[in-house]
Design goal:
This protein is mostly helical and 409 residues long. It has 16 helices and four strands. It has a four-stranded mixed beta sheet with strand order 1-2-4-3. Helix 12 packs across helix 15.
């Protein structure tokens, strides 16, 4: 999920920072080339996964095969961003959307439609990866349900962005109608964080519906687990049965900044496969995340990147203006000559590189530290590491023997 966030955010940056050609008029040929772009990507997905066929035919399911599957997946998802870049900068995707819809250029639905096109690459990848994923990771769901589950699993990543874009759009329209102006710094550093915090507080209500979560209060096992969590001082609303991928994904989690909207999620397969001691150890781990305020840190981590990316152009111009490295007049002339490629090389590319460094490096470091801290909390609450160790061994085995597979976060 974290990797998909990076791809989606990179796609959003590519689309939103691109300056379209106002004089360009699209034709049927442009539509044909966009379709060809998607077709070529789909064929590449098929050809790349073909290298796993020999192992699949001989039922050779080794760590090396699974690692190869993940390497191919990473390559193809990265390639999807490259193909999306081509669609925007060379195949006039944004101009086509503007002309077909007739929406104002700053209307947030333009970005929604742009991301909907990017999801076509995701769909192609999920559709072609399904048979390999099913065999390698012991999945029993069919192709349609797999693709549907992937959509449901990934769409919530965009909910904060969508809500904030919607609120900002209507705020701007309201201010314009009343002829009111607000300082840009006030919007960026006061209004935006408040919106973001509000969305983050209520996000669990949206996510639990999108992920098909159900109340587990009718289960004696869930009731015992709820009693255990409350006895350890955790304030939360309820434990929910997490039916992602038809409940066959071995995982659990906790979400919610405030107790009223805080939920513990656990999938049916995990609930039915672990012993009570192991389940309590897993939930003690999740309690550790809450006790150590990891979710709060992640909230500010994401907000920090949003503020940096929004204000980067201002920082860039200030740097050019007050430094002796580049001449400001030359810089402004370059912008006026070709704003499209100026925004690409001076804005989009640096922010995408920052995105990779910010999350893959710094987020990865903190995420791994948080997991260790939560494991230690589980050890302290349970008085023994046996439960958390045996639960992780089972999760690794039933998820396709992924115990030794590297994970960046």
């Amino acid at each position: 999920m974290f990797s998909n966030f990076l791809y989606l955010f990179a796609a959003l940056l590519l689309f939103s920072t691109y300056s379209p050609d106002n004089e360009y008029v699209f034709s049927a040929v442009d539509i044909l080339f966009l379709g060809l772009n998607l077709f070529i990507f789909s064929r590449l997905c098929i050809s790349r996964f073909k290298v796993l066929d020999i192992a699949m035919e001989n039922s050779i399911f080794t760590l090396k095969t699974q690692t190869k599957y993940h390497d191919i997946s990473t390559f193809l998802m990265t390639l999807s961003v490259v193909f999306y870049f081509v669609a925007i900068y060379f195949l006039h995707l944004k101009e086509i959307i503007f002309q077909v819809t007739g929406f104002p250029k700053d209307f947030f639905l333009n970005d929604v439609l742009g991301l909907a096109f990017f999801f076509c690459y995701f769909y192609s990848f999920w559709n072609n990866s399904f048979p390999y994923h099913a065999r390698l990771f012991n999945s029993t769901i069919d192709r349609d349900e797999y693709v549907k589950s992937q959509f449901k699993f990934n769409v919530p990543i965009l909910v904060p962005w969508f809500c904030i874009s919607l609120l900002f759009y209507f705020m701007e329209e309201t201010l314009i109608s009343f002829n009111i102006t607000i300082n840009q710094n006030l919007k960026d550093f006061i209004v935006l964080p408040l919106f973001f915090l509000t969305v983050a507080i209520f996000m669990p209500l949206i996510i639990k519906r999108m992920w098909g979560c159900e109340s587990g209060s009718g289960s004696e096992t869930v009731q015992e687990l709820e009693t255990f969590c409350r006895s350890k001082g955790l304030k939360f609303k309820a434990i929910l049965i997490w039916n992602v991928f038809e409940g066959k994904l071995f995982t659990a989690g906790i979400m919610g900044l405030v107790a009223r909207f805080r939920y513990i999620l656990i999938t049916p397969v995990m609930l039915n496969s672990l012993t009570m001691e192991e389940l309590k150890s897993v939930l003690a781990h999740e309690i550790g995340h809450n006790k150590n305020h990891h979710m709060n840190f992640l909230l500010f981590f994401f907000l920090g990147f949003i503020l940096i990316s929004i204000n980067y152009p201002n920082f860039l111009f200030l740097f050019i203006q007050y430094s002796s490295i580049l001449d400001i007049d030359w810089f402004l002339h370059l912008f006026e000559e070709n704003s499209t490629y100026f925004s690409l090389f001076w804005v989009t590319v640096p922010i995408v590189l920052l995105l990779i460094i910010y999350f893959r490096l710094f987020f990865g470091i903190f995420s791994r530290a948080f997991e260790r801290e939560a494991d230690i909390h589980s050890l302290q609450l349970m008085g023994s590491a046996d439960g958390i160790v045996s639960s992780l061994e089972k999760i690794g085995f039933y998820s396709g023997d992924i115990r030794d597979m590297p994970n960046w976060h």
